Automatic annotation (TrEMBL):
Coiled coil: none annotated. Keywords: DNA-binding, Metal-binding, Nucleus, Transcription, Transcription regulation, Zinc, Zinc-finger. This is MYND-type domain-containing protein. The keyword Ribonucleoprotein does not apply. InterPro entries: DUF4470, TF_DEAF-1, Znf_MYND. GO terms for cellular component: nucleus. Residues 1166-1204 form the MYND-type domain.
Length: 1212
């Protein structure tokens, strides 16, 4: 396993999700079929809400694969889906899924449903042939067995006279009451996060409802007697018992912002909250049932269930993607602590063609526990590459990895974001865009104002170049990525250092307390690093020769060896690293090439001695008493060690463990063993031994390592961390050894040969060939990356090489001609010789204006070097088009690339009783779009900060259309360019709605572009509207162009009932938007004009213009908190008040109290090392960044010079 083995410790069951529901198709255009992988799935809220948000007019195939390692989750989820399909009454479904206690009716409904399901689930064939099998599929026999086992247990414990129920009732009562008493005076910020912008208004009501739930075990506020414990809360991965997490709250999955925002009096009632949540639950269930019943062959709805750990399941799916080899892969267990193999059903994955590549992969917040690098390594190969967009990956974090939100993501990445994007071919879209349409300001605020250890951050990853149609056309072939061997070795060392810095205690203590606590639970093993190298070897560096790749690894190992003087603790893990590199066929150390001599006596009898062996150690059950002790309940990482006192000590982190016993099945000359798992597996109890195994180099068991190898000791230990030392050293001693045995102990220690894992077939690297046109120059052979020599993991520049093939171009180059080089798009450069052109592809966005050309006139090639346009805000990759819309499949499915889609008609309208009440929360929320840098831009009247200008305009539109600034609402607003004194874009705002899953608001509006074709038809009605009130909104700088680019994205994000026509202007003219200049014409195609216009027709003044408008969904553009500081809790209210004033003064840029001195404020950071302080010095050239010293400024110059432009006259 690439992740460390942790003792399970105290296990918590999560029957209900701890974040609100989201649509998993928010980044897929309507009408396009989708395969979705939920890894893990948790409760079914996201599946239900996704189906609820689907367009009835544009049905499509939806195929969900829901994985979880807790059978209790899958049993409950499948039970609920079956109840929905069977039309079980809503009240019973709510009670069964959310209440700890049940009445007679609900218990009877549960038992009846379980009997039906059990009767259908004797085999996979019988299940799939049942009435449920068309829509609910089971992906493995083991999954069906476990789900069926739990359904049977639900039946047993719901039967009258069950002898276990009395004890279970006592357990539920006592633990529920203890949790209620422990939280009854607490403020539940985690429950209130689903109310988004109204979190401060709702938190007390959420807290009251949470306390009521744990006081009574139900959401009901009636006094009905509930005599039965709910059996579905008593069965989980931990076995039978009440292990429900103490923070469980049935209302968290639901969106209650509209309840709080639209409340008539502001006196919130927990019972009303429950009614609102139950109403949503009913809507979701009805939508699911209607979709199942109406599913056609061409657009079915399928939900598949698969039991297993997320890493194990992803590995199993990846194995299905590999071509058959003569070297079979070892079985993959379904989860740690079990030997049960993951065996996907052939009938499903071969005959029924269950998906093994996915358009969307959602990983919830599992990266908090298994590590983001482990998630990327197993999910990136599972993403579909058949469409232009190349798949979407969602990751989340709930843990506050750093006290500073700007380091929340960078702290969990294995390298700089630019390097991660280049190596994996995925990047967070927010990092390139510089904004997000999903708000987390409420998380920033509550994190600053409370001591809660949670911070919810959702990240959408896409292929970075998928936003660039020009670049997407060039990525059909696998382009070789080149990197200097020394730089690549330095990069690998930097990654290694980041992954395992926590192993060095002194370095951990140098960071903040939150980082220390997370470091103790670091999930990475040396095998993780070996898997990472295996990935690099098979993907971006597949074209490296074996010799060159070995050279890179040796350079890395040399760096690692040189660092041992500074970090000697890493020497403990060197053999673990080497054995994993060899096992993954990534590198063969010299000691592994030689036949081991003078091994221990057992190995000397073998017919053939391999370079690596597996050691099995039987650990007696009583040795785990220290871990089972409730007073020391924890989840320590576990390792194995081989040592010879005073001679050697080698630790191994990749440990497999199974409750059971071991049986020898081979001979002395050809040893083999079989591990037989105890019944109950992890829940086998104190009577079962544990078999742990790990792989070691064979030479370690010879005289080459120790004079007496038979005297070597094998330890099963806890990994030494500050937490384990503090808790267990007194009991276990300095080594933290749970159990030890000499290698010569044939009863406790078994040794067998170990094979390498099967090789990963690399893709074939190939140049980008010339196009079919006769006017091309040659072919691109590779792209080379240059890394920051100081930081070592950031990509500074990219070089694309073009080998000339055209004879005329070769002659011109040889005769001294200079090519013309331009940048047509963010990821391409164009080389031209006369009428011949060639586009070069770059895997990251570049700053083409700062390119350099290298001309090899004799060798006939051209290299174009360009700095990388990352990170934001130092460089803005999307400056030329901040809001790209890409065309999918047949070019009739445009899709906004960085603005999420929404089901506009499904979103509740903002209907706050008074403008003053609305102003209380709407203005601070919309004002929080601005980062602190944006606010400084406004204060300095900077009209070059395009995003800040647009955010102000959006703020203005929202506050004016709702009337929160005083006076009547202005619902017809026209953009007017301040410099040109005119405009051609008019917005008709019908409603303001809650974008509930994005925790923000959205204008349900219509846009009209004035042009010669429509003016004759709308002149009279528009004149009438102007008399009643048409308000101008001034825009500045280059805003007009950006608004024209934004409009197509705003249209496509809410398109739900109409399709683009074959003669769509986007296709015939080959661009989106169609126009960007004032009075040049409509930027939008005509396909959506006059569609979904009920909001216009309801208004007497607007209805005559309705045929000429297009519906849009306009929402705020929030600053990205992991890229730049957004709020300072101490000045938050005053800064937001400034935002209000800006929106109320007709978009004139006001003089602000935030004028900047020449030196920095206490909130500024060094642009290189991120040090804070008021003594930082400003760059004297651009005056936009600060440094703590000349050394930091010099070290950062290679990166900063790409964006450093002359500024004002102030000097640092």
């Amino acid at each position: 396993m690439a992740a460390l083995l942790f003792w399970s410790g105290k296990y918590y069951f999560y029957p209900v999700g701890n974040t609100s529901a989201v649509s998993l198709t928010r980044d897929i255009p309507p009408g396009v079929s989708a395969n979705l992988l939920l890894l893990p799935c948790g409760d079914p809220r996201n599946v239900l809400y996704t189906v609820y948000c689907e367009s009835a007019q544009m049905p499509r195939k939806l195929d969900f694969t829901c994985c979880d390692y807790d059978p209790g989750i899958l049993a409950r989820d499948s039970l609920l889906f079956a109840m929905i399909m069977d039309g079980v009454p809503q009240e019973a479904m709510w009670d069964i899924f959310f209440h700890l206690y049940l009445n007679d009716r609900s218990l009877s409904a549960l038992a009846t449903q379980c009997r039906r399901l059990v009767a259908c689930a004797s085999t996979l064939d019988s299940w799939h042939a049942s009435s449920y099998g068309k829509s609910i599929r089971i992906s493995s026999e083991y999954t069906l067995q476990e789900i069926r086992r739990l359904w049977n247990l639900y039946l047993e414990t719901s039967a009258p006279g069950c002898h276990r129920m009395q004890e279970l009732r006592r357990q539920v009562d006592s633990r529920r009451e203890a949790n209620w008493r422990g939280h009854k005076d607490g403020v539940m910020w985690s429950s209130a996060r689903s109310s988004g912008p109204l979190i401060t208004h709702s938190v007390l009501a959420y807290s009251q409802q949470f306390h009521h739930y744990w006081e009574t075990g139900t959401t009901s506020h009636s006094r009905e007697e509930l005599p039965h414990v709910n059996p579905t809360f008593l069965q989980s991965r931990a076995g039978e018992g009440f292990h429900v997490h103490y923070g469980t709250d049935p209302l968290v999955p639901f969106h209650l912002a509209s309840y709080f925002g639209n409340h008539k009096t502001g006196s919130f009632s927990p019972s009303e909250m429950v009614s609102a949540a139950r109403s949503q639950f009913q809507d979701w269930c009805q939508a699911f049932r209607a979709r199942v019943r109406s599913s056609q062959t061409s657009s079915p709805l399928v939900v598949r269930f698969l039991l297993g750990d997320v890493i194990c399941i992803a590995h199993a799916l990846n194995e299905r993607n590999k071509p058959p080899t003569s070297c079979p892969s070892p079985s993959i267990p379904v989860a740690p602590w079990t030997a049960q193999p993951t065996v996907l059903s052939d009938a499903e994955y071969r005959d029924c063609q269950a998906p093994i590549l996915f358009d969307v992969i959602d990983t919830s917040n599992v990266s908090d526990h298994v590590g983001l690098l482990n998630i990327l390594l197993v999910t990136v190969p599972l993403l579909s590459t058949t469409s232009t967009w190349g798949g979407v990956l969602y990751t989340e974090s709930l843990l506050a990895h750093r006290a500073d939100a700007t380091t929340q993501i960078t702290s969990i990445l294995p390298a700089d974001l630019s390097a991660v994007a280049m190596m994996f071919g995925l990047c967070p879209i927010d990092a390139l865009s510089g904004f997000s349409t999903i708000c987390n300001t409420h998380e920033l605020l509550t994190n600053a104002l409370s001591s809660a250890p949670q911070f919810h951050q959702s990240i959408t990853w896409k292929r970075p170049y998928s936003c660039d149609p020009q670049a997407s056309r060039l990525t059909g072939s696998h382009i070789a990525l080149d990197l200097d061997s020394e730089q690549l070795a330095a990069f690998l060392f930097k990654v290694y250092d980041r992954l395992f810095a926590a192993d060095d205690a002194m370095r951990v203590y140098q960071v903040d307390l939150t980082s220390m606590q997370r470091a103790w639970l670091s999930p990475y093993s040396r095998e993780t690093f070996a898997v990472f190298l295996q990935y690099l070897r098979s993907k971006p560096f597949a074209w490296f020769s074996e010799h060159r790749w070995s050279q890179v690894v040796m350079l890395f190992l040399a760096r690692l060896g040189a660092s041992l003087k500074e970090f000697p603790y890493d020497n403990l893990w060197r053999q673990d690293l080497l054995v994993q590199l060899y096992r993954r066929r990534t590198f063969t150390p010299s000691t592994f090439r030689q036949t081991p001599s003078s091994p221990i006596s057992r190995i000397s009898q073998w017919h053939s001695i391999p370079p690596i062996v597996r050691i099995y150690l039987t650990v007696p059950s009583d040795k785990f008493a220290v871990l089972r002790n409730p007073s020391t309940a924890s989840t320590p990482p576990l390792i194995c060690v081989i040592r010879a006192n005073g001679i050697l000590e080698c630790g191994f982190q990749s440990v497999d463990a199974v409750f059971g016993n071991i049986v020898e099945t081979g001979t002395a000359a050809k040893p083999a063993v079989e591990v037989r798992e105890a019944p109950g597996g992890l829940n086998a109890g104190i009577n079962s031994s544990v078999i742990v195994s790990f792989v070691v180099p064979t030479w370690l068991l010879t005289k080459a390592a120790s004079p007496d190898p038979d005297a070597l000791i094998v330890d099963f230990c806890m990994k030494s961390t500050s937490a384990t030392v503090t808790t267990f050293m007194k009991t276990l001693g300095l080594r933290l050894a749970i159990f030890s045995a000499p290698l010569s102990d044939t009863q406790r220690v078994h040794i067998v040969p170990e094979d390498c894992l099967p090789p990963v077939p690399p893709p074939t690297a190939s140049p980008i060939p010339p196009s079919q046109s006769d006017l091309t120059i040659g072919e691109q052979t590779f792209t080379r990356a240059d890394l920051d020599s100081i930081a070592g993991s950031a990509v500074v520049s990219l070089t694309a090489r073009l080998d000339l093939r055209d004879p005329d171009s070769k002659t011109k180059l040889a005769n001294g001609a200079f090519p013309t080089i331009t940048q047509p798009s963010p990821y391409t450069m164009r080389v031209s010789f006369g009428n011949r052109t060639q586009d070069l592809f770059y895997p990251l966005p570049i700053i083409g204006a700062q390119h350099k050309a290298r001309l090899a006139r004799k060798s006939s090639y051209i290299e174009v070097v360009a700095p990388v346009a990352m990170p934001f805000p130092r460089a803005w990759a999307m400056e030329s088009n901040p809001f790209p819309v890409v065309r999918i499949q047949d070019s009739r499915c445009p899709m906004p690339w960085n603005i999420h889609r929404l089901a506009l008609d499904r979103l509740p309208a903002v209907e706050t009783p008074s403008p003053a009440r609305l102003h209380e929360w709407l203005n601070p929320h919309v004002g929080s779009q601005l980062s602190r840098r944006d606010r400084r831009s406004r204060a300095e009247k900077d009209t070059t900060n395009l995003l800040a200008l647009m955010k102000d305009t959006i703020h203005c539109i929202m506050v004016r259309s709702t009337g929160t600034q005083g006076g009547a609402p202005s619902r017809v607003l026209a953009l007017r360019d301040e410099a040109l004194g005119e405009g051609d874009t008019i917005f008709f705002v019908d409603k303001l709605r809650y974008d509930v899953s994005a925790h923000t608001v959205v204008c349900d509006a219509f846009v009209l572009t004035l042009n010669e074709a429509v003016v004759p038809f709308i002149h009279a009605p528009l004149k009438s509207i102007a008399r009643k009130g048409l308000e101008s909104v001034r825009i500045f700088g280059d805003e007009l162009r950006a608004w024209k680019q934004l409009l197509p994205a705003l249209v496509e994000r809410c398109r739900a009932s109409w399709e683009h026509q074959p003669n769509c202007e986007y296709v015939t003219r080959g661009k989106i938007p169609l126009e960007t200049a004032l009075n040049a014409g409509d930027p939008l195609c005509a396909c959506g004009r006059g569609k979904d216009i009920d909001g216009m027709r309801r208004n007497k003044l607007w209805k005559n213009i309705a045929p000429y408008v297009t519906r849009i969904a306009l929402s705020p553009l929030f600053a990205v908190s992991y890229l730049e500081p957004v709020i300072d809790a101490s000045t938050f209210n005053s800064e937001l008040e400034s935002s209000t004033q800006a929106a109320q003064t007709a978009r004139s840029l006001p003089t602000s109290s935030f004028d900047r001195p020449a030196s920095a404020s206490k909130e500024e950071r060094c642009n290189k090392c991120s040090k804070k302080g008021d003594d930082l010095l400003r760059c004297s050239r651009c005056k936009t960044v600060f440094y703590c010293s000349q050394g930091c400024q010099r070290a950062d110059w290679m990166s900063h010079k790409a964006v450093c432009k002359p500024g004002g006259s102030e000097r640092a």
